[in-house]
Amino acid sequence: MPELVQCLPAKYYADARYYEAERREIFNKEWQCVGFDHQLEAPGSYVKESIAGTDVFVRRGNDGALRAFHNACPHRGGPIVTDDAGRAGNIVCRYHGWAFGEDGGLLNARDFGAEVPGDTCLRGARVDTWRGVVFVNLDVDARPLGDWFGGWDERMAEWDMEDAEFHSRHVHPIECNWKTYMDNYLEGYHVPLVHPLLNQMTEGTKYRVWNHGDRRWNIHLTPHPDGVDIPGTFMCMWPNFAMDIYPEGWSTERWLPRGPHRTDLIRDYRLDRAYAMLKNREGRVGEIALRTGFVNEKHFATVFRERFGMPPSQVSGQRN
Fold it and tell me: How many CA atoms lie within 13 A of 287 on its CB side?
């Protein structure tokens, strides 16, 4: 029999004092997904994200390098960027107009009227990428991203993730503590009631979460009624990041705390380029079956209805 493990006491989910401790000890020190390479292709392009209340942005420099900064001017805390993503030729505070170089150093304190300390600069953060996914760590002395991933990078070597195009993003505000969703992702016990379509095509009672000895991440296995695991792999990484990998594409999930009792669940979907060949309104697999081996039309439609919120016949017209 599996060992019974109890979750945290309710106070850790409800008391704002624990949330402040989590901001300091977890989200200020762990790598966080903030975007993707396709959003940062051009010089000056940027993405902005709030990591448990701390705004940061990542910008592609003219030299091609990615740099991350806190989105707060050292003068009075004014924002440097206001949109979630965009392109800015210059790094200028939107409040008083102080200008900064690509390295974050102060270039000009517009009409300030006094001498500004020579070391004035934007506060930096660590930034790195993994197979097109962009991560930030507020701790400039944090361990490298590759160490954070552990053995997950090696396990993913067989998957051609780069041969997929961005499809869409879905943001779901949830009235719960971020750990509540984390607890949800760590089990498949809820599948029969919450995901009835998926449950029809899988043996929900045999859903497995494989820890494999590394507590930083685990893998979910979903067996088909014929006893064979459905192709793909689902990974959950501490503290708030997950990836779902399928032969037809992959998606990321992150549950970002917006307060002690509010969380944004953000899902980004990428589809294999071969899905552009899907034309049949009945949702037949067509030529894609030759590539993925997914010839079960009912399962194929189930994946799209649950993962993308639309039948497969609509995919070619919903690209972003």
Answer: 8
**CATH code of the domain covering residue 259:** 3.90.380.10
The pTM of this model reads: 0.83
DSSP letter string over 148-217? HHTTHHHHGGGS-TTSEEEEEEEEEEESS-HHHHHHHHT--TTHHHH-HHHHHHS-GGG-EEE-TT-TTE
Under the banding of pLDDT at 50, 70 and 90, the label for residue 101 is: very high
For residue 256 the two structure tokens come to: 């970002």
CA distances from 314 to 171, 198, 288, 308 (A): 20, 20, 15, 10
Task: Name the nearest CA neighbour of 177 among 265, 305, 83, 67.
Answer: 265
Question: Which residues does residue 217 pair with via DSSP β-bridges, in sequence order?
Answer: 237
Is 17 buried (19+), middle (13-18) or exposed (0-12) by CB count in 10 A?
exposed
pLDDT digits (tens, 9 = 90+) for 139-165: 999 999 999 888 778 877 877 788 788
CB neighbours of residue 183 within 10 Å: 14
Give residue 230's pLDDT: 60
Range of the domain at 76: 22-149
125 assigned to some structural domain? yes
What is the domain-level CATH number for residue 74? 2.102.10.10
DSSP state letter for 12: H
Distances (CA, A) of 178 to 96, 106, 251, 257, 259: 35, 36, 19, 6, 9
Q: Are residue 59 and residue 38 in the same domain, yes or no?
A: yes
